[in-house]
Design goal:
Elements (H helix, E strand, L loop, with lengths): L1 H16 L2 H21 L7 E7 L4 H12 L3 E6 L6 H7 L4 E5 L3 H6 L4 E8 L3 H26 L6 E8 L6 H32 L2 H5 L5 H29 L9 H25 L3 H17 L12 H6 L4 H15 L7 H26 L1
Parallel strand pairs: 1-2, 1-3, 4-5
Antiparallel strand pairs: 3-4
Helix pairs in contact: 3-6, 7-9, 7-10, 7-11, 7-13, 9-10, 10-11, 10-13, 10-14, 13-14
């Protein structure tokens, strides 16, 4: 028995390794993904943009500000003269946090009473918010120890007061679950569309379609539209579960969310049709879908912030439709965003959809002819 099993194993290995395309798929993409993911997948927080609102302007407060500015964790993007723009800076994503120093900061230090420092963080990404809170606490603790050693008193004379916008409790579910709306919509759409033409070729019915009165564009639409419908239906179910089961607030425009999902599904449908047109079997289509899905998830900001990635990796994310839909779903759920504020995310998805559908149509005609 084992002789037959080993012979079968040898045959399968030879069948895979003898095909140059199979060898390229087994060796090339994993190495490329390893290099890209090794740079992109990082939970470290480096050079997070922050703003400083120093109401004290004393020597002690300037020393504290310098500690934030010299830290490799933070980059001071703005120095504010009033508190009017705090919410706008965080809302736009220009800064991840605002450090607010109370005007009584130095007086409280000399009186050896708690001198509060408020850090207002962007709670839309709970992981980043918690990291900012931790690093800010470390800087403040080090400042307090230095001050106490120089002026006496029991450390720490300065205390950290954290306030999170959009996600007051920094609940990670509020950040992750809206992202799953985009993730599962992509997975379902890509698999349904990607397997459509390959399945017909594998079972031998695709040639029968070609001799029917249907035109190539009719077949292309007939293969793409079911995936689009299923993808939108899947998105609806996930949105309902997110709101009614997980109790994540839906604060923004539902119409804007569905428009963005439609553009996203169109882009994914074009990618799925291109994969299906290039695949002769369902196995090849599944492999092609997998090779696209993993990089698209890693390079989307689903788990790790795009801002933490190297510049050349950030450039790669610009052609990833999931990058834009993640911004949309989180903005609609947590920020209460409307259509006008989402235009910078909508038009790239529309452009990607047009390009992918055009490429899919060209590949489809080429393979049919």
């Amino acid at each position: 028995m084992w002789r037959r099993v080993l012979a079968l194993i040898r045959k399968e290995l030879l069948a895979v390794l003898a095909d140059p395309r199979s060898r390229a798929v087994l060796i090339g993409p994993p190495l490329v993904q390893l290099i890209v993911f090794g740079y992109a997948a990082s939970f470290d927080l480096n050079h997070a943009p922050i703003a400083i609102y120093n109401q004290d302007r004393s020597l002690a407060s300037r020393d504290l500000v310098a500690r934030f500015a010299l830290s490799p964790t933070f980059t001071v993007k703005r120095v504010l003269s009033s508190g009017r723009r705090i919410d706008a800076l965080i809302d736009s994503g220009e800064v991840r946090a605002v450090v607010v120093i109370d005007p009584r900061f130095t007086r409280d230090l000399y009186r050896h009473v708690p001198a509060p420092i408020q850090v207002i963080v962007d709670g839309r990404n709970s992981n980043t918010g918690l990291l900012i809170e931790g690093y800010a606490g470390d800087i403040l603790t080090d400042f307090s120890r230095t001050w106490s050693a120089a002026h006496g008193g029991d450390p720490p004379p300065a205390v950290l007061d954290v306030r999170a916008l959009y996600n007051q409790t920094l609940d990670s579910h509020w950040f992750i679950i809206p992202g799953i709306v985009a993730l599962l919509t992509q997975v379902v759409t890509l698999l349904v569309v990607g397997l459509s033409v390959a399945r017909e070729r594998e079972i031998g019915t695709f040639d029968q379609l070609l001799v029917t009165p249907l035109r190539q564009i009719d077949i292309l639409l007939g293969k793409g539209l079911p995936g689009l419908i299923i993808g939108m239906g899947e998105a609806t179910v996930i949105i309902a579960a997110t709101v009614f089961w997980f109790h994540v607030p839906l604060r923004g425009s539902l119409a804007a969310l569905y428009l963005a999902l439609l553009l996203f599904v169109l882009a994914v449908t074009g990618i799925g049709l291109a994969i299906s047109a290039l695949s002769a079997t369902q196995q090849q289509a599944l492999l092609g879908a997998f090779l696209f899905m993993v990089p698209s998830i890693i390079l989307s900001g689903f788990a790790t912030p795009i801002a933490n990635m190297p510049p050349w990796v950030q450039e790669l994310t610009l052609v990833n439709p999931m990058r834009y839909i993640l911004v949309v779903v989180r903005a609609v759920f947590l920020e209460g965003a409307d259509l006008s504020s989402l235009v910078p995310q909508l038009w790239p998805m529309a452009l990607i959809g047009l390009v992918t559908l055009a490429v899919a149509g060209w590949l489809f005609r080429k393979r049919v002819v």
